[in-house]
Automatic annotation (TrEMBL):
Record protein name field: Aminotransferase class V-fold PLP-dependent enzyme
Keyword Lipid biosynthesis found: no
Cofactor dependency: pyridoxal 5'-phosphate
GO MF term list: transaminase activity
Signal sequence extent: 1-30
PANTHER family xref list: BLR3095 PROTEIN (PTHR43586:SF15), CYSTEINE DESULFURASE (PTHR43586)
Segments passing through the bilayer: none
Length: 374
C-alpha cells in the first residue's frame, strides 16, 4: 500500500525509534506542534506575557476547529477538557417542566455518566442506553429516547472498540422525540470528517490530545448558535462575559459564555499548530487512508489468530482495532519495552493508527502481539 502521507512522517520524531499506535489515547507529537509550544515558552522567557498575542492565538485556534467541524467561530468555546465541557452543559442545561430525562450510553467514556450522576436534579431521571457487544442499533435509540428526554449524549465512536455511530441518523431519531443531541467526538475529530450542520448536532465536544495531535489542557465545545442564549453557565468566569471587568456584565454571545478563567495558553498554541497540520492533510484524505489500514488490520489480525473486539468490517468502525488480552496492562508494558506504544483498556489492547502510520507497522505490532499471546 502506497503511503499517501509519507512526507509527514518526518514531522514525528518518535517514529524513528518507536512504533506509535496509540492515537486513541495520545497522538505522537509533531515538530510544528512542539515548535508552537516553544514559541509560547520562549516568548515568556524573552519578552514576558503578550496578552494580545495569546488571545489572538486562541481566536485562531477556535477558527480552525470551527473549520474542522463545519461550524462558525462564535459557536466554539475553549475549555480545559471534554469532562469540563460536559459538566458545564450539565450544570446549565435549561429544564422545561415536562422534560427531566437525560439519556447516555454504556459505550460513552465513563466520565460522561459520572458527571450526570453528580447532577442532583437529573440523577434520578437517567436512562442508560445499552449496547450489545459494544455496539448500539438505531432501533435502541428509538426505544429508549422518549418524549420525556431532554438531552441524549452519544459518542461518535466508542473509545474501547472503535464502533462508529451514524450520528446523522441518531440526530433524526432524538430530534423527533424533542431531545437535544450532545456528541462526544474525542475519538473521531481529526481523522474522520465531521460537519455539525449536515449531521444536525446540537452540542459537540472534542479534546486535542488524541487524533487532533495536540497536548492536554485544551478542548473545544460547539453549541448551535440558536441554543447558546438558552444556557446560563453556573461555572461563570470573566472570559465568558461580554464585559470581563464589570461585575454586572452579561454572558458573552455565542458559545464563549461557557469559558471561565484564563485558559492554558501553551496548549492552545499547540492546538492551533496541530489543527493547521490536520487541515492541510485534509480529514477526508486521512479517513480514506485509515479505512485501508483498518481493513488490513482486520484481515491480518484474523490471520494471526488475534481476537478482535468490535465491528467486523470497516463499514461502522474507525481504524481503532481492539485486541482481547486477559492481562492487557501487562502486555502494554511488555510491548513498550520493545518500543511499541499501544493503549490498554480493561481487557483489550487498542491499536490506534493515525495518518503518519503504515501498514507495515501494524503488521509488525500484530506479529509481536501474537508471539506474546502464544
Amino acid at each position: 500500500m502506497k503511503h499517501p502521507f509519507h512526507t509527514y512522517r518526518s514531522l514525528f520524531p518518535i517514529l524513528s525509534g518507536h512504533v506509535h499506535l496509540a492515537a486513541c489515547s495520545g497522538s505522537a507529537l509533531a515538530l510544528p506542534v512542539a515548535k508552537a509550544v516553544d514559541e509560547y515558552q520562549n516568548g515568556l522567557l524573552t519578552a514576558g506575557a503578550d496578552w494580545k498575542a495569546h488571545l489572538d492565538k486562541m481566536d485562531e485556534a477556535k477558527e480552525k476547529f470551527a473549520r474542522l467541524i463545519g461550524a462558525e467561530k462564535e459557536e466554539i468555546a475553549v475549555l480545559p477538557s471534554v469532562s469540563d465541557a460536559v459538566a458545564a452543559v450539565a450544570a446549565s442545561l435549561p429544564q422545561p417542566p415536562h422534560r427531566r430525562q437525560i439519556a447516555f450510553t454504556d459505550i460513552d467514556f465513563p466520565a460522561v455518566g459520572q458527571i450526570w450522576l453528580a447532577q442532583d436534579r437529573f440523577k434520578d431521571h437517567l436512562i442508560i442506553i445499552q449496547s450489545e457487544d459494544g455496539m448500539i442499533d438505531l432501533e435502541q435509540y428509538e426505544k429508549d429516547v422518549t418524549d420525556q428526554t431532554l438531552l441524549t449524549c452519544v459518542p461518535h465512536a466508542g473509545y474501547r472498540n472503535g464502533f462508529k455511530q451514524d450520528v446523522k441518523q441518531i440526530a433524526e431519531i432524538v430530534h423527533q422525540k424533542g431531545s437535544l443531541l450532545f456528541v462526544d467526538a474525542y475519538q473521531t475529530a481529526g481523522h474522520i470528517p465531521i460537519h455539525v450542520k449536515d449531521m444536525d448536532i446540537d452540542i459537540l465536544a472534542a479534546g486535542t490530545r488524541k487524533y487532533m495531535l495536540g497536548i492536554p489542557g485544551t478542548a473545544f465545545l460547539y453549541m448551535k448558535r440558536e441554543l447558546c442564549g438558552q444556557f446560563e453557565p453556573k461555572t461563570a468566569g470573566w472570559f465568558g462575559r461580554n464585559k470581563p471587568f464589570a461585575l454586572d456584565s452579561c454572558f458573552a454571545e455565542g458559545a464563549k459564555r461557557f469559558e471561565s478563567g484564563t485558559p492554558s495558553f501553551i496548549s492552545i498554541y499547540a492546538a492551533d499548530a496541530a489543527l493547521r497540520l490536520l487541515l492541510e492533510a485534509e480529514p477526508g484524505r486521512i479517513e480514506h487512508y485509515l479505512r485501508e489500514l483498518a481493513a488490513f488490520s482486520l484481515q491480518y489480525g484474523a490471520e494471526k489468530g488475534l481476537k478482535i473486539i468490535g465491528p467486523e468490517t470497516v463499514h461502522n468502525r474507525t481504524s481503532l482495532i481492539s485486541v482481547y488480552a486477559e492481562e492487557a496492562g501487562r502486555m502494554e508494558a511488555l510491548l513498550r519495552e520493545k518500543h511499541i506504544i499501544v493503549s490498554a483498556r480493561n481487557n483489550v489492547i487498542r491499536i490506534a493508527p493515525h495518518f503518519y502510520n503504515t501498514k507495515e507497522e501494524i503488521g509488525f505490532v500484530m506479529d509481536e502481539m501474537a508471539a506474546l499471546f502464544g
